[in-house]
Each structure stands twice: as C-alpha cells, then as structure tokens.
Amino acid sequence: MYKVVAQDGRAKSAEFHTVHGTIQTPVFMNVGTAAAIKGAVSTVDLNEIGTQVQLSNTYHLHLRPGDELIKKMGGLHKFMVWDKPILTDSGGFQVFSLAKLRKIEEEGVYFNSHIDGRKIFMGPEESIRIQSNLGSTIAMAFDECPPYPSERSYMINSVDRTTRWLVRCKKELDRLNGLEDTVNKNQMLFGINQGGTYVDIRIDHAKRITEMDLDGYAVGGLAVGESHEEMYYILEETVPYLPVNKPVYLMGVGTPANILEAVDRGVDFFDCVYPSRNGRHGHAYTGFGKINLLNAKFETDDRPIEEGCGCPACRTYSRAYIRHLLKAKEMLGMRLIVLHNLYFYNHLMEEIREAIRNNCYKQYKKSKLENLKRGVE
User: Fold this and answer.
1) Catalytic residue, candidates 89, 215, 264, 268
2) Contact, 337 vs 279, CB < 8 A?
3) Catalytic annotation present for 89
4) How does pLDDT run across 143-174, given as a tens digit for each residue?
5) Other beta carbons within 10 Å of 247
6) Segment 183-206, tens digit of pLDDT
7) Coil, helix or strand for 129?
8) Is 190 labelled as part of a ligand binding site?
9) Which of 10, 269, 355, 363 is the most buried (most CB within 10 A)?
C-alpha cells in the first residue's frame, strides 16, 4: 500500500508498505548488483548508514551463483542477511548493454553471457521466474531499453513489444505468487514506461500501463545519453500520466542535482551506481559538490571528508589518511569513501523528505543546488 503523507507542488513524500517493511519516500536504493555493494560494504554497514532499500540484479544473479541456488538458500533476503526491502531489476538493461550478441524476438531475447559466452534466452516469464526464485520485495517487468537515439518507428515497435511483455510478466507473477513453494508470495510488480525522448509515445505508454493497475511504475530509458534538460522535460510531461496513488521510480538516476530536480517532478524512487563507483575511484560527494581525494592538496588535510557529517568515515578519519589509503591501494580507503557516499545519499533523501513535509521543498532545492555548485575548499 502506498500513501502520500505530504505534497509540495509535484514533490511528494509517501509511505510504501511492503512485506519487508515500510519505505519512506523519496528514497535512494543502494545498488548491490550481485547481492553486495561494491566497496566491501556489508548489510550491517547499510543498516548503520540509514539504508532503506537495496537493489540487486536479476541478470547477474542468474548467471552467478544462480537463482535456483539462492532459492535453495531461502531467498535473497536470507542469503545476504538483509531483512528490509529489496528491488530486483529485471535484467533487461543488462541484456541490452552487456551482451555483445543478441537477437530480439517476440518471445524474448537470445544472447550470449558476458562471463563465459554461453547462449542464454530471457523473456518476460524467465525474468519473473528468476526474480520469484530470488524472493525480492519488488520485481521489475522485463522490457527493452532502446538505444539512444532511436528512430521513431523503431521506438513505437519497441514500446508496443514492452507493453505485451508487461502483460505476460503480470500473468506469470500472479501464477508464481499462488504456488506453495514460492519464496515471497507477496512479491510486487513495477511496470516500466519507455519511449525515449518522444513525449507523445511516453504519454501514450504511461496511459496504457496505468490501466494495468500495477504496484508501482518506473520511468526507464533515461540517463542514456540525452541531456539533463531533456530528461527533466520528459519527466515533467510523462509523470502526470502515471497514477498519483502509486510510487514512481526513475531508473538509474543519478547525481544529487538530478535527484533534487526529479523529486520536484513527482519521482519517489531512485537508484544509481555513482556513490559506490565514484567512491572506489576516490571521489567523495559533499553538500558543496564532489571532491577527488587523490588530489595532492589533500595530502596533509586533517579535516574529515565533510565537516559535520555523521558517517563512519567522517566521524573518525581525515582526508589525508583516506588519501594515503587510496594511494597505497588499501581496500579500506575505497570502503570508507563508499560508506561516506552512501550515507550522503541516504541523508540527502532524509532532508528531501523533511523539506516536503515542512512544505518548503522549493526553497530547500534552490539552496541545495546553489551549495552543490559552490565547490569544496
């Protein structure tokens, strides 16, 4: 059940009740692709830094260690020792981005594994069966993420096929949720809106999938090459055609500025690899922009990554020490920055929820964006 508790313009804060606990939105989902956050961050750490939801990937877990093995181990929650909500991405994006050889048919996609080259088939039913074996809280529908840019005729055909696939996903999940040995019989399904930068195709698709009365709706196929302004415009035009009484998820986004702008356009859920990927390369997020701790100017800087930050890294260690760890190729350096970045994102979402609930989101967003542009000393 999804209940909006506060609204400020189009920005909304809600409570989304699931079998694995209530999610306060807007929320950032920490990306644990292969059932772990890259950067040696454990589920104990995730609890400490205020993580509400974790995202794992169907394609990767199907290839290794195998979804049937995870089902035997009691499902993904038990396997990774995480009792809060998990969203599983359908694997569609990875099929289209990682597989060098692939063939799209009405029944699904034939492709070669990026690990060992073996031939694999994945369609709507296969994706949903894998996600059911994983037992995630929220399953994503299997869709095609069309390349950017795409011809209008290609986009229309692709979106039509994605809609037909969504019907099959819903039917298969309903069947699996009724079986005796299903890990999570309350698994939810989110559909995905596609259409590239063609606003009319996006709106038409939003109307069609809204009629299916799903548990939530995602906007996919953005942040794939179009400008930020184009992305914001698509959200502005499309989100009003998705149900107001269901969560809206912007897939694969993004920077703190992207999140602030998308919240203002009615988005609830976000995920992105930036905090962990950039952290592993020495880049730390702060309220005044991003800093590169490998820079020589931090060599003798005894301040924390960000003054006043309550993350495990900032409470204890200096920029100079963390820089030393990175230069020495010590894993602890990466781990500390990833922890800081994930804490920063989770804390940002807390501030966003508070601003919406205090009816001052516009002022908060303006101030936050100005600070992010200022830069760090």
Assistant:
1) 89
2) yes
3) yes
4) 998 989 999 999 999 999 999 999 999 999 99
5) 25
6) 999 999 999 999 999 999 999 999
7) helix
8) no
9) 269
Identify the structural domains of the chain with CATH numbers, from first to last.
2-272 (3.20.20.105), 279-374 (no CATH)
Residue 194 in marked binding region: yes
Partner residues linked to 55 by β-bridges: 31, 87
Judge contact between 127 and 169, C-beta under 8 A.
yes
C-alpha distances (whole Å) from 254 to each of 44, 221, 301 are 25, 13, 29
Complete DSSP assignment for 64-109: TT-HHHHHHTT-HHHHHT--S-EEEE-SHHHHHHH-SSEEEETTEE
Place of tokens 């994945």: 122
Comparing CA positions, the residue from 256, 222, 257 lying closest to residue 239 is 222
* Residues 133, 71 contacting (CB under 8 angstroms): yes
- The Cα–Cα gap between 279 and 333 comes to 9
Q: What is the pTM of this model?
A: 0.97
Cβ partners under 8 Å of residue 131, min gap 6: 58, 67, 88, 90, 139, 140, 187
Instruction: Establish whether 314 is an annotated binding residue.
Output: yes
268 is catalytic: no
Mean pLDDT of 130-144: 98
Does the annotation place 66 within a ligand binding site? no
Q: Which residues pair with 270 in a beta bridge?
A: 28, 250
